[in-house]
Design goal:
α1 packs across α2. The model has no long low-confidence stretch (mean pLDDT about 85). This protein has a 5-stranded mixed beta sheet, with helices on one face. The protein has 5 helices and 5 strands. The protein has about 150 residues and is an alpha/beta fold. It is globular, with a radius of gyration of 18 Å.
Length: about 150
């Protein structure tokens, strides 16, 4: 029988500036507009999603599996004078090897569905959310704000 196992070992605060990139710099391209939206989201919504990291016991290094762009945005915000805690939450993910960790980078970057027009409109209406309030820090290419007029 197949079994789902928990790969999250624990969560703790880490010095986010010292996390290393498992991805190469050109793995995923972000435009300056993408980074601007991420930075705006961090300022408006704060830090709401922990880094996913792998602790390489052999080399005693912390590698980012998910959160590369977030780290870049945080570094830029710090340079711009935004106060950011020295430590932020990270989920430590169970990986035995660097190859296993690298595979999870691909998994974290996967998208298992797309936002559909009717679904997002219903959702916004259900919670009385005006999309224009969240659009400046969202980055979902399949959402066309021109059709997201809520009944407010």
């Amino acid at each position: 029988m197949k079994q789902i196992k928990n790969k999250i070992l624990y969560q703790k605060l880490v010095n986010w500036k010292q996390l290393l990139w498992l991805k190469t710099e050109n793995y995923k391209i972000s435009s300056s507009e993408d980074l601007k939206k991420l930075k705006k989201s961090l300022i408006e919504n704060h830090f709401i999603d922990p880094f996913k990291i792998w602790f390489d016991e052999k080399n005693e290094k912390l590698w980012i599996l998910d959160g590369h762009r977030k780290q870049r945005a945080l570094k830029e915000l710090k340079e711009e004078g935004v106060r950011i805690p020295e430590t932020l939450p990270a989920c430590f993910i169970d990986c035995k090897t660097q190859k296993q960790a690298a595979r999870l980078v691909l998994v974290y970057d996967s998208v298992y569905g797309k936002v559909n027009r009717d679904g997002i409109t219903d959702y916004l209406n259900l919670f009385d959310i005006d999309f224009s309030d969240v659009e400046p820090f969202t980055n979902s290419p399949e959402i066309d704000a021109s059709y997201l007029i809520t009944s407010q």
